[in-house]
Every structure is written in C-alpha cells, then in structure tokens.
Amino acid sequence: MTAEKASNSPGSLKPDRKIVKLYLAAIGANIISLSLGTAIGWLSPFLPLLISHDSPLEHGPVTDIQATWIASLLCIGAFFGTFLFGWSAERFGRKMSLLATALPLVGFWACVAFGSSVELLYTARLLAGLGAAGVFLLVPMYITEIAEDRIRGTLGSFFILFLNIGTLVSFVMGSYLSYHLTAYILCTLPIAYLAVFIQFPETPQYLIRCNRVRDAECSLKYLRGYTSTPDHLEMLRTEMDGLLQMQVTGEKSADGTTEQGGISLSDFASPSARKALLIGLVLVSLNQLSGCFALINYTAQIFADAGSDLDPNMAAIIVGAIQIIGSYGSTIVVDRCQRKHVYIATSFLAAIGLFAMGTHGYLKSQRIDVSAINWIPVASLSFVIFIASVGLLPLTFVILSEILPPKVRSLGGSLCTAFLWTISFLVVKYYPVMVELVGLHGCMWMFSAVCLSAGLFNAIVIPETRGRSIEQIIHAMENDIKS
Q1: Which of 93, 179, 338, 454 is deepest in the core (most CB within 10 A)?
Q2: Major facilitator superfamily (MFS) profile domain spans which residues (predicted)?
C-alpha cells in the first residue's frame, strides 16, 4: 500500500501535520536549487559588462567568441558532472551526493569573486555546470523518493520554483550591486545549504536498496511524522512492506529470476524501463529545444536586439518575477489538474507566444515601422516564460523522475540529464549563430514549432502520473495506458 492509501486509512494523521516534514525536507533540498539559480542567472546582467569597456577583467573586455564560451561551458561541465553524480548517488546515497553539489557552486563564486582573467571565468562556468548536473539529477530524484503520491507533483515543482527565485536574485543583484560584491554575497548560499540540509534523512528507497531496513524505517518515520501509537506503527509497517515489495519487483530480471548487484544496461530490457528512458530523452530534448534556457541566458540582449524601449536589465528582472509567479502556479495546479492537460496546454500557449515574438522580429527585419508595438517582445517573452514555468519546464523533471523505475532511476536519470546538457550546450552556444543565420524571428519560430511538438508528444505517448504510485505508473507504461 502506498503512502497515499495509508493516509486515507482510519487513524491517519491530519494531512497538514503529516506532510509538514515532507515540505521542510523538500524546501531544505531546494536551497541548492536556489543557489544554482543565482549561478545560472549571473550571466544575464554581467555578460554585457564583461564585453564592455568597463569589464572587471584585467585584460579588458572579452571577445564575442569568448562570451559564447562563457555562456556554454556550464553545459559542458554539467555533461560530465551528470555521470559523476549519477555514480555518486548509487555509491554514497542521494543525501551525501546532494550535499556535495554545494562544493562546485562555492568554487564558482570564488572564481568570479577573486578571478581576473577569462580563463578563470571558464573554470567558474565549468564548476557551475558540475554543480548544475548534480542539482538537476538529484533534487528531483530525492523528492520523488521521499514524497507521498498525493503531493509528489507539488514537491517536485519546487525545483523549478527555487531555481527561478535564484535567477531573479541574480538579475536584481546584478543590476544594483557591483560585480565582485554580488559574488561575495551569493557565495554564502551553498554554504547555508550545507548547514540546513545535513539534518534531513536519506531516502527510504535508497536505504532499502542497501539492505538498511532499520534506517529506512527511521527515515520514513521522520518524513511521515509517525509516532509510536498502534495506528501509526501499522501505517509504517504497511508502507515499508510496499517499499520492500517494490524493491523485490525491481530486482527481477526479464526471465523472472531475482538479480542482485549493481545496475547495468541490461536493466533497461523491461518494456517499462526502455520506454521510460526513450520518453525521458525526448522530454529533455523538447525542454531545451523550446528555447527557454537560451532565452534566460540572453534575456537582456534579446530585449535590446528586439528594439524594446525598456531597459534590458529591468526587462530581465520583470521576466524573472513573472517566471516565479508561473512556477508558483505550477505548485498549485500540478496535483490538482491532470499533468497531461497542464503540459499540453502550456506547450501550445508557449508556441503562440514565441510565434508572436518571432512575427514582431520579422516585421522589424523587413524595415516595417513597429514602434507602436515595441511592447510585444517584452509581453510575448514574459507570457512564454510564465506559461512554460507553469507546466512545460517543471513537469519535464516531475514526469521524468516519476516514470523511471526505481532500480534504473539513477542511471536512467543520468543518461537523460547528460543528454539534456548536450542539447543545452548546442542551443546556448549556437543561439547567437542562429540569430545571425535566420534572424531573431527565425529562432523564435523554430522554438515555437518545438513547443507545439512537445504538446503533441505528451498527448500521444506519455501516461498520466498524477496521484498514482510508482507501481501504478510502471503498470501504465507496460500496458500503454495514457489516461
């Protein structure tokens, strides 16, 4: 029986009391998401400074080519970091690996604060990418493995919410504080995360996989708020039995025999695992090819290139705030509405917004007077970021962590996350090149087509996961159940 079913049994805890520690654990884990958001958002306000004559680097402004490498090296660091943290998650556990993600982010801010050359900025971005790999892989994994079925989507959507809050913090501080002071202040975030998150437990699923059943019971008891009353002990036993049964099922090979030991590619032989991996690879590809990550990195420049009358840094702050509102909206709707409906609707609406922005850019490229509609770039991009933050962006990671079977979740998540960062590198690195080749309008129209494809893919291929246990989701994958 899952935690959701247990919560509906007689004598269960009141929902608000029962889930408070789950919320605290999710918030504690996502402090590192907040820190990563500041590292990602750092580029938008400070890249224009680095290429200007007021550059803080001792050798003067960086070249356009160096600027594209500063932007894209994060993705290269993340690609290699994905496999490092994937291995670490299996070897040392989810909790210890998550704590380790703070170290490269401290290194990033130290390089920015004390470095004075472009080479150190390259190193900083590689370190930020290393931390990003761990955060993107491990935070959704940790949340999925501790959450109850009924609030798994809400807790999972905290990831993008905290990431967006961190991005806005960087936008604001980069606009009003100096280059070095911003780095000094934001370096404290990953350190604070270490102090807070160390008090929370390892996930029960990982502990059971390591045959640490008593530790798993303690972890579950803490996370669910169970006491020593007979009713609570019965609920604890019921949920532990369900986790143990899931572990036994996950260790069975294709021929029905039980396998022990590490994970290998042969574990993807089952239809559900193979299908989940393929869906995951497509989901992360659509997530990045939608252009949202590139738009965040080049927010200030996009508004300037589009001819917006609004100050580029102020426009970025406005977009960052709207992004947070959208992410918060996601935490509200993700467990109240069908995941498929939210994902499909937000994908189609984002496609409309990007198409409108592309049309404005096209009219401008044809030397048509667009002064009366110069509000369109800000309005369209704000709309796209808001809508994508409600569904398209956060649900990618919620769905990915839900559909992967427990035994292959770490390896499958690593493969999907590495593929995400590969696509992200190509998009961020070559976005300026594509703007030169097909214009801003051409890029926006291509992003629009990808968002449309994302909605269609979800409608046709992906099963509904809201309110379902992991066992039910795996069953739906195996039997091609979409609703």
Answers
A1: 454
A2: 21-466
CA–CA gap between residue 470 and residue 114 (Å, rounded): 46
Q: Does residue 263 form part of some domain?
A: no
Total count of domains within the chain: 3
Q: In which element (H, E) is residue 286 found?
A: helix 271-289
**CB neighbours of residue 114 within 10 Å:** 11
366 and 396 share one domain: yes
Count of CB atoms within 10 A of residue 411's CB?
23
Instruction: Report the chain's C-alpha Rg in angstroms.
Output: 23
* Among candidate residues 244, 377, 368, 225, the one with its CA nearest the CA of residue 299: 377
Residues ≥6 apart with Cβ < 8 Å to 54: none
**Where does residue 103 rank: exposed (0-12), middle (13-18), buried (19+ CB within 10 A)?**
middle
Q: Is 85 domain-assigned?
A: yes
H/E run at residue 191: helix 188-197
Provide the pLDDT for residue 68: 85
pLDDT of residue 371: 77
pLDDT-based confidence at residue 186 (cuts at 50, 70, 90): very high
Residues 79 and 424: their CA atoms lie apart, in Å, by 10
Of 200, 216, 239, which residue constitutes the final position of a domain?
Answer: 200
Residue in 51, 84, 56 with CA at minimum distance from that of residue 298? 51
Q: Could you tell me if residue 438 is inside a domain?
A: yes
Question: Are 470 and 345 in the same domain?
Answer: yes
| Cα 136 from Cα 131, distance rounded (Å) | 9
| Within-domain flag for 423 | yes
Which residues on adjacent β-strands are paired with residue 258?
252
What is the tens place of the pLDDT at every residue in 173-185?
Answer: 998 999 999 999 9
- pLDDT tens by residue, 431-473: 888 888 998 889 999 999 999 999 999 999 888 888 787 778 8
Taking residue 57's Cβ as centre, other Cβ atoms within 10 Å add up to: 18
> In which band, very low, low, confident or very high, does the pLDDT at 252 lie, cut at 50, 70 and 90?
low
Query: In this predicted model, what pLDDT tens digit does every residue of 141-177 receive, in sequence order?
Result: 999 899 888 888 889 889 989 999 999 999 999 989 9
Q: To 5 degrees, how large is the angle CA 276–CA 282–CA 288?
A: 135
CA separation for the pair 193, 106 (Å, rounded): 11
Residue 239, domain extent = 205-248
| Averaged pLDDT for residues 96-125 | 95
